[in-house]
Structure to design on (196 residues):
């Protein structure tokens, strides 16, 4: 009984305390964006207006997160076409110096729990498996002339354009939108699409 009374007294004293916040000069607000969590990874919310038939064709990567074979590459493109089985054929090309590189893979729709459209599991030969069971290609925004695509946990960003060389101000606005959608601004680079 004595322990119970002591705990009640301590709890009452703690609830009456006012702990001052530490002063900070940081006036920025935390960026909070919608996401899905499957117990393993976080996934950006896909664009509800995504239409696969409209999305197929050639895209030029004008900005994003450099990684793997595209780090330092120029003329990065992606060609998407529909396979007979409903998956999407993915052909990525680029140039490193004057050397062309190309890789072909497949994009399969991810489970409905991740979104009805614009969520894919993309795989390439020899690619290591990811610890995330869900999609690794999420179309966050699709507007016909451009697409903002992210991977799980916001690790890799692709800003794609139908035009190989859109105006710099246009690319900057797409980058700003990607940041509003959760991308890390300091990790984003513009990609070179000249001399292709």
């Amino acid at each position: 009984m004595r322990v119970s009374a002591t705990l009640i007294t301590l709890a009452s004293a703690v609830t009456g305390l006012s702990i001052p916040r530490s002063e900070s000069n940081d006036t920025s607000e935390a960026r909070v964006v919608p996401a899905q969590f499957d117990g393993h990874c976080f996934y950006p919310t896909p664009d509800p207006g995504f239409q696969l038939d409209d999305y197929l064709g050639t895209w030029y990567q004008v900005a994003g997160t450099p990684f793997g074979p595209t780090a330092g590459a120029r003329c990065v493109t992606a060609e998407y076409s529909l396979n007979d089985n409903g998956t999407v054929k993915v052909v990525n090309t680029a140039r490193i110096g004057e050397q062309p590189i190309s890789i072909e893979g497949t994009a399969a729709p991810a489970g409905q729990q991740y979104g009805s459209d614009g969520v894919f599991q993309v795989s390439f030969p020899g690619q290591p498996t990811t610890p995330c069971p869900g999609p690794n290609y999420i179309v966050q925004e699709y507007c016909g002339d451009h697409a903002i695509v992210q991977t799980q946990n916001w690790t890799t960003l692709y800003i794609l354009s139908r035009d190989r060389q859109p105006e710099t101000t246009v690319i900057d606005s797409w980058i700003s939108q990607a940041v509003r959608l959760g991308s890390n601004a300091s990790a984003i680079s513009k990609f070179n699409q000249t001399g292709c």
